[in-house]
Amino acid sequence: MAPFVRNLVENTPALVNAAVTYSKPRLATFWDYTTVELVPPTRAEIPRAIQSLKKIVNSAQTGSFRQLTVKEALLNGLVATEASMWFYVRGIMGKHGIIG
């Protein structure tokens, strides 16, 4: 047991340096993505979002959504699924468990 502990103590700085070297560029990329994707909408983006919502409601009323390509319909379905899953996940987190 003593050689294992001695070996672990001797190699710990090298392991820590390797972990830092490995994770530094990945954390920088992660930070870049978070500063772009996780910011609240600006005042300029809010009217565009409202117009987009009006366009979606209009297409539902007129039936023009039937003219979407399969790829566009699939992407819209995935976005709707993601939004609903976040709704359910927040509910589970608020209840502190899956069962009520």
Map the helices and strands:
Blueprint: H1 2-37, H2 45-62, H3 70-95
Describe the structure.
By secondary structure, the protein is an all-alpha fold. The chain has two domains: 1-39; 42-100. The protein has helices at residues 2-37, 45-62, 70-95. The longest helix has 36 residues, at 2-37. It is elongated, with a radius of gyration of 24 Å. The chain starts with a helix and ends in a 5-residue tail after the last helix.
Number of helices: 3
Sheet having the most strands: none
Gap between N and C termini, in Å? Answer: 49 Å
Low-confidence stretches: none
Gyration radius (Cα, Å) is 24 Å
Short structural summary:
The chain has 100 residues and is mainly alpha-helical.
Keywords:
100 residues, mainly alpha, 0% strand
